[in-house]
């Protein structure tokens, strides 16, 4: 099942569940960050850094980043198979978009590591 | 009172491209009529105008057209329901046009065929008279069996426009669910197995265009939701 995540031929139910599960994590992260921004007024980088210093927050942020990666993979595959009919062009677009999504996770990981 | 119409015309034998043609119809002041009656009157003026119709009372499903941007059956859509002004009639969107308002429904029927729209019962000994159902079991088919396959729903569904070869579409899925919950049908698992890919069912994003146009007041989105949860349960 796990290998399907990277597969070209996608599985309907798995995608359906993954899209919703990752959407929940992204939503939770967005809400939490909104709460952080509303309730704190950051006056220095140190305060901002402190938010991400706990291991829980790091795990949460990482989970959100991975969720975005998975959500984008499936979502963009759906959009591209709807609107881009030439297979080669679609493959290229898919590759570029996946690469961007992957870089988000990679860069995010380094940033979190550094905090 | 004069009514104006703008009707999609295309005869592939003669025309290079489709065009809209204007017509006017003289009717008694304050008189209402169905779009189909208006089309028939216009056909008297111009016999080359082509469209399908048969029962003229919303039963056969042959006169699905797009009126002022919304799909429906011409025979049960009164002109008054379309608001004032020019009435624009086009063929059902997304399907190849054979001529004028007549579309080629092959893609639609191919999807219908795929869901095996017939009762499958593998009982060794068929009952002597008939497969009996309790009133409760029978009630589950309400809101499903009434579909007349007019294609108004599937041709208003963006997912069907983009993938008519892979997405079954609301009409086909409504029928799929009709057989999935039929107590007499024994092929539930095979039926679900045929639908669990990424396109057949899951291309439905619950936009509900299908619900808003169905001339029979049916709700394909709800049926599709039920199929999705059956598929989920089966996968767990
Ligand atoms: S569900 Fe409604 S709109 Fe769709 S084919 Fe059946 S009757 Fe027509
Ligand atoms: S609810 Fe689903 S089937 Fe109905 S129009 Fe929307 S995408 Fe199509
Ligand atoms: S002519 Fe039969 S449904 Fe309209």
TrEMBL record, chain A:
Protein name: Succinate dehydrogenase hydrophobic membrane anchor subunit
Function noted in UniProt: Membrane-anchoring subunit of succinate dehydrogenase (SDH).
Binding site for heme: 71
Gene Ontology BP, a term: tricarboxylic acid cycle
Record keywords: Cell inner membrane, Cell membrane, Electron transport, Heme, Iron, Membrane, Metal-binding, Transmembrane, Transmembrane helix, Transport, Tricarboxylic acid cycle
InterPro entries noted in UniProt: SQR/QFR_C/D (IPR034804), Succ_DH_anchor (IPR014312), SuccDH_FuR_B_TM-su (IPR000701)
SUPFAM superfamilies for the chain: Fumarate reductase respiratory complex transmembrane subunits (SSF81343)
Predominant location category: membrane
Transmembrane regions: 21-43, 55-74, 95-113
Cofactor annotation: heme
Cellular compartments per GO CC: plasma membrane
Pathway(s): Carbohydrate metabolism; tricarboxylic acid cycle
Manner of cofactor binding, per the entry note: The heme is bound between the two transmembrane subunits.
Gene: sdhD
Compartment(s): Cell inner membrane
Record CDD domains: SQR_TypeC_SdhD (cd03494)
One Gene Ontology MF term: metal ion binding
Keyword Iron among record annotations: yes
Annotated a ubiquinone binding sites: 83
Membrane topology field: Multi-pass membrane protein
A Pfam family that the UniProt record links to this protein: Sdh_cyt
TrEMBL record, chain B:
Gene Ontology MF term list: 2 iron, 2 sulfur cluster binding; 3 iron, 4 sulfur cluster binding; 4 iron, 4 sulfur cluster binding; electron transfer activity; metal ion binding; succinate dehydrogenase (quinone) activity
Cofactor list: [3Fe-4S] cluster; [2Fe-2S] cluster; [4Fe-4S] cluster
EC number: 1.3.5.1
Domain 4Fe-4S ferredoxin-type: 137-167
Reactions catalysed: a quinone + succinate = fumarate + a quinol
InterPro entries linked: 2Fe-2S_ferredoxin-like_sf (IPR036010), 2Fe-2S_ferredoxin-type (IPR001041), 4Fe4S_Fe-S-bd (IPR017896), 4Fe4S_Fe_S_CS (IPR017900), Beta-grasp_dom_sf (IPR012675), Helical_ferredxn (IPR009051), SDH/FRD_Iron-Sulfur (IPR050573), Succ_DH/fum_Rdtase_Fe-S (IPR004489)
Co-factor remark: Binds 1 [3Fe-4S] cluster. Binds 1 [2Fe-2S] cluster.
Keywords carried by this UniProt record: 2Fe-2S, 3Fe-4S, 4Fe-4S, Electron transport, Iron, Iron-sulfur, Metal-binding, Oxidoreductase, Transport, Tricarboxylic acid cycle, Ubiquinone
Record bears the keyword Electron transport: yes
UniProt pathway: Carbohydrate metabolism; tricarboxylic acid cycle; fumarate from succinate (bacterial route): step 1/1
Any GO BP: respiratory electron transport chain
Top-level division of the source organism's lineage: Bacteria
PROSITE patterns listed in its UniProt record: 2FE2S_FER_2, 4FE4S_FER_1, 4FE4S_FER_2
2Fe-2S ferredoxin-type domain residues: 1-95
Function summary: Two distinct, membrane-bound, FAD-containing enzymes are responsible for the catalysis of fumarate and succinate interconversion; the fumarate reductase is used in anaerobic growth, and the succinate dehydrogenase is used in aerobic growth.
Family of the protein in this entry: Belongs to the succinate dehydrogenase/fumarate reductase iron-sulfur protein family.
NCBIfam families: dhsB, PRK05950.1
The name this protein goes by in its record: Succinate dehydrogenase iron-sulfur subunit
Taxonomic lineage from the root: Bacteria, Pseudomonadati, Pseudomonadota, Gammaproteobacteria, Alteromonadales
Gene that produces this protein: sdhB
């Amino acid at each position: 099942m796990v290998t399907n995540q990277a597969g070209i031929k996608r599985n309907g139910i798995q995608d359906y569940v993954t899209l919703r599960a990752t959407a929940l994590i992204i939503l939770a992260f967005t809400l939490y960050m909104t709460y952080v921004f509303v309730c704190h007024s950051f006056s220095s980088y140190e305060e901002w850094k402190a938010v991400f210093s706990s291991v829980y927050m790091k795990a949460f942020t990482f989970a959100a980043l991975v969720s975005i990666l998975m959500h984008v993979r499936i979502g963009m595959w759906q959009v591209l198979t709807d609107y881009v009919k030439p297979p080669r062009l679609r493959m290229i677009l898919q590759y570029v978009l996946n690469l961007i999504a992957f870089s988000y996770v990679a860069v995010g990981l380094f940033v979190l590591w550094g905090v | 009172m004069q009514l104006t119409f703008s009707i999609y015309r295309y005869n592939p034998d003669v025309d290079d491209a489709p065009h809209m043609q204007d017509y006017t119809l003289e009717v008694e002041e304050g008189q209402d009529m169905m779009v189909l009656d208006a089309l028939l009157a216009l056909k008297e003026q111009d016999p080359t105008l082509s469209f399908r119709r048969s029962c003229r009372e919303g039963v056969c499903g042959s006169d699905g057209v797009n009126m002022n941007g919304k799909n429906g059956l011409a025979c049960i859509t009164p002109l008054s329901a379309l608001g004032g002004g020019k009435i624009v009639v086009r063929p059902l969107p997304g399907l190849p046009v054979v001529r004028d308002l007549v579309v080629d429904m092959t893609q639609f029927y191919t999807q219908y065929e795929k869901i095996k729209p017939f009762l499958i019962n593998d009982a060794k000994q068929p009952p002597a008279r008939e497969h009996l159902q309790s009133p409760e079991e029978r009630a589950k088919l309400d809101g499903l069996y009434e579909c007349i396959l007019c294609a108004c729903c599937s041709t208003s569904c963006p997912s069907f426009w983009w993938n008519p070869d892979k997405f079954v579409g609301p009409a086909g899925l409504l029928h799929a669910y009709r057989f999935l919950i039929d107590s007499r049908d024994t092929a539930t698992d095979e039926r679900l197995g045929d639908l669990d890919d990424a396109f057949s069912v899951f291309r439905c994003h619950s936009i509900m265009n299908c619900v808003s146009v169905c001339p029979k007041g049916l709700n394909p989105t709800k049926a599709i939701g039920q199929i999705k949860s059956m598929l989920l349960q089966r996968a767990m």
